[in-house]
Amino acid sequence: MDEIRIEEIVRRVFDKAKFGCVSHSRYALSKYVSEVIGLSSRTLERAYDRYINGDLEQGSPNADTVDFLCGYLGYENYAEYVSKNALPIKGSEDGAPGKGGVQMKWILYLVGMTIVVFFITSLFRMNQKPQCMTWVKTHYEEVSCNTEPSMVNGMAVVPYDKSKIMNFKKVEVTMSTPFFSEITNQPLIWYHKTKEGEIEYFTAPGLHPVTGKTLDEITPYMIQKYVPMHTNHEDSFLK
C-alpha cells in the first residue's frame, strides 16, 4: 500500500471525526472513531502519531486496519478507495498537481464543509429551545430549563454542557480499567472520597455533581490502596 495514500486516508478519517466529536484531541478523536468502526483506539492513536504528528517510529497500519478506515469514509475497502480517488503524479510533465495539490484540494473541501455545517448548526440552534441538564445517578441528562429540581430527585438544574453530557460519567472500576493513557500517561479517571470513606470514580475532571467539590486525578497509590478492595466487593473503604 502507498504511504501517501494511507496518510491521505488517515487525515480524512480524523477530519471527518471532528464533525462528530466534541473534543479534537488525539485521544478523543481516536476513541470516537474506535467506537464507530470497532478498531482499537490504541491503533488509531498510532496512526494519528505517524501521519499527523509525523512520528515515523510508529509503524504503518496493516491492510485490515486501512480497510476499516476506508469503511469509515464510506468505501468498501482500500481498493475501492483507490479506484475512486485518483492520486495525481508529483512533478508530472503536463503540470498535474502533486501531493501539495491534493492537500490544497482537501483544504478547500474542508473549508466548504465547515461553512455548510456552521450554517446548518446555526439554523438548528435558532429553532431550538434553551436546554438545561441535571445529574441522574451516574450521568447528566438533558432536561427543560423549566424543570423543577423536585422533579429530578432534588438535583439542581444547570445550563446544558454537551461535553459533560458526552464525557462526564460516574463509573465502577476494576484492576483492568485503563486508568492512564498508554501514549501520554495522563489520567483517564478522577475520583472523590466521601465522608463515609467510599471512593467514587468519574471519567472526566471537574466538580462533583452533588457536593460541588473538585475531583482528584487518579494516582497509582489510590489504585493500589482502594481498587483491589473494590473488586472484592467490599462495602466500604478504610481511610
Intertermini distance: 57 Å
Structural class: alpha+beta
Number of strands: 7
How much beta, percentage-wise? 5-15%
Tally of DSSP helical segments? 8
Could you state the order of secondary-structure elements as H and E? Answer: HHHHHHEEEHEEEEH
Helix content: 40-55%
Mean pLDDT: 83
Instruction: Give the CA-based shape.
Output: flat
From the alpha-carbon coordinates, what is the Rg to the nearest angstrom? 23 Å
Strand order of the largest sheet: 4-6-5-7
Biggest sheet overview: 4 strands, antiparallel
Stretches where pLDDT falls below 50 for ≥5 residues?
Answer: 91-97, 230-239
Describe this protein with a few key phrases.
single chain; 239 residues; alpha+beta; four-stranded antiparallel β-sheet; three-stranded antiparallel β-sheet; 8 helices; 7 strands; disordered C terminus
How is this structure best described in words?
It is a single chain. The protein is α+β, with helices and mostly antiparallel strands and 239 residues long. It is 43% helix and 11% strand. The protein has a four-stranded antiparallel sheet, with no helix packed on it. A hairpin with a 5-residue loop joins strand 5 (190-193) and strand 6 (199-202). Helix 1 (3-17) packs across helix 4 (63-72) and helix 2 (26-37) crosses helix 3 (41-51). The chain is flat and about 60 Å long. Residues 91-97 and 230-239 have low confidence and may be disordered.
